[in-house]
Amino acid sequence: MKITDGITLIEGAGANSNCYLVECASGMNVLVDAGMPENFERIRARVKRIDVIVNTHCHYDHAGADGLLKKEFGAKVAAHELDAPYISSGDAEQTCASLFGKVFEKVKVDLVLKDGMVIEGTGLEVVHTPGHTHGGICLYDRKRRILFLGDTLFAHGAVGRTDLPGGDPEALAASIRKISSLDVEMILPGHGECVLSGASGYIKDVLEKMNF
Hints:
single chain; Metallo-beta-lactamase, Chain A; 5-stranded mixed β-sheet
């Protein structure tokens, strides 16, 4: 489903995360999150080229298909420096693969991300938003005022779980306060519906209602 020019949603089926194909002005194709291995064929049927897979965090439902997609497309894998080791080692606990009764296929992280960096050739700024995992991130397209949220925040006022490995309620509250300072028109979450207008106001409303 087309979200806006250059951004296509591959909606998560079942427990799979939403995946977003971002066709950048540089010509690069970025996939924001990969979903689980069973999501591989759905992506391959819709996508001709992937240059970089950017994981918003290390959980199996977002990063489990990294290895398959890397092999298929020759894509680089990117993740925040605090979650990258879990993807590289296939850590069953921190990736939550064990909760799904699965094994996480370890895959080398080619691009280690840090807060504030802009991923070369993409225009996407890394915003470190821990709380759901240690190395959770959002991706901010400052020019177009679009924020990819991962599992930091969802539509209808829901926030990411903090009862899983790497979870921290206080860190998540701080992360939502952090993104509330951004000028955002659209928010594209890791699961569920997108908010396509007035997103800054929406985030501030969530903060007020949840007393963060």
